[in-house]
From TrEMBL:
Gene3D superfamilies: Periplasmic binding protein-like II (3.40.190.10). This is ABC transporter substrate-binding protein. It comes from Verticiella sediminum. Coiled coil: none annotated. Keywords: Signal. The keyword Signal applies.
Length: 355
């Protein structure tokens, strides 16, 4: 209606000119305050500290939690902006070991311990995933790992998952003398084609790849778990193996600003992990595309493997890391030598993200 001035409408120039001085000053004050608040909000949003992290290329479980943090806005909720870059395993590890990427969300203990021995300036802050891998096979007669004798197994031997898998295979009497190992960096469809065409007998893959392969095999493929809890309890006294961790450059975490950023990221990690446990279907819907899986397969993966997510400061599990890096992995040939006590002490950070 002509001449109307509601709460949400600015006065026209004619109306403004006819206002008394008090009302003019009031409108100017409100306008200035509104502008200041909007500018402050935009500035605060623009000034959020950025946290670039590297993950393995999908399909990899290292994608799940960073992707979910972004989709749920947990980074901004906790006062930072998460920037995620997917890279092939060899590139990701090279860039982490050389310091080009100071924050690695895919630092497998068994793999990056080698970098520590070689003088890399790295340390591990917290555990993300416990160890688990699967051997995917097409032959319905293959029901156990022991039946792989004389077969050809294809896997990515650059990863820490392979180093630990190799130890568990050796515990079953399988090594290079009884099993042909074919190394590849191929993921997803490329690796699956090798199995379906009969060029290899088995694929050793991470949980995401396993679920995707079995789903795509439409009943022709099945998976055999590699982790043997009984064997592990006999040597460690624990029921799980810390495996995939958050690794950072030691010099990076020495900066108080980065320590604060790491604590914010840790809080977002814990919240995302709780969301996966409580709402796996919705979590799957959000991260399926980034993980290169259909939502149904993604949900199956999350439901099956959500107990593998164990986000805790790694220092709490120093004895287990010592067992891995000072005894089991060197004895199995996955490390050239045991970590020294001094190397171990700096390899597993004393930084507490919960303080």
């Amino acid at each position: 209606m002509a001449g109307s001035t509601g709460c949400c409408n600015a006065p026209s120039s004619t109306e403004f000119s006819t206002m008394n001085p008090f009302r003019k000053r009031l409108h100017r004050l409100v306008a200035a305050l509104t502008f200041s608040l909007a500018a402050a909000g935009a500035h605060a949003q623009a000034e959020l500290p950025r946290l670039p992290v590297t993950v393995f290329g999908a399909p990899s479980q290292s994608v799940w939690i960073p992707s979910l943090i972004q989709h749920l806005g947990l980074d901004r909720k906790h006062g930072f902006e998460l920037v995620v870059t997917q890279k092939p395993s060899k590139v990701a590890y090279t860039d982490f070991a050389t310091g080009n990427d100071p924050v690695c969300y895919c630092a497998a203990i068994a793999a990056v311990a080698r970098f520590k021995q070689q003088g890399a300036d790295i340390t591990l802050l917290w555990n993300i995933f416990n160890f688990e891998t699967d051997v995917v096979v097409r032959d319905p007669a293959l029901k156990s790992l022991e039946q792989l004798r004389g077969k050809t197994l294809q896997t990515d031997t650059i990863t820490g998952s392979w180093a630990l898998s190799r130890w568990f295979l050796q515990a079953r009497g399988l090594d290079e003398s009884t099993l042909t190992i074919q190394s590849t960096s191929a993921r997803g469809a490329g690796a699956l084609a090798e199995l379906q065409l009969g060029r290899v007998d088995a694929l050793l893959v991470n949980p995401t790849e396993s679920a995707a392969a079995v789903a795509q095999g439409r009943g022709e493929l099945h998976a055999i778990p590699v982790f043997d809890q009984t064997v592990w309890q006999q040597v460690s006294g624990t029921d799980f193996v810390p495996s995939i961790t958050l690794g950072v450059a030691s010099s990076w975490i020495e900066d108080p600003a980065n320590q604060d950023l790491a604590r914010r990221f840790y809080a977002a990690n814990r919240e995302a992990a709780a969301f996966i446990r409580e709402q796996p279907a919705e979590a799957a819907r959000l991260v399926a595309q980034d993980s290169r899986l259909d939502p149904e397969s993604m949900e199956s993966v999350l439901r099956r493997y959500r107990d593998l997510i164990r986000i805790e400061p790694l220092r709490r599990h120093l004895d287990t890391v010592a067992l891995l890096t000072q005894k089991l992995l060197p004895e199995g040939g996955q490390l050239p030598r045991p970590l020294t006590d001094a190397e171990l002490d700096t390899f597993v950070s004393t930084f507490d993200p919960e303080m």
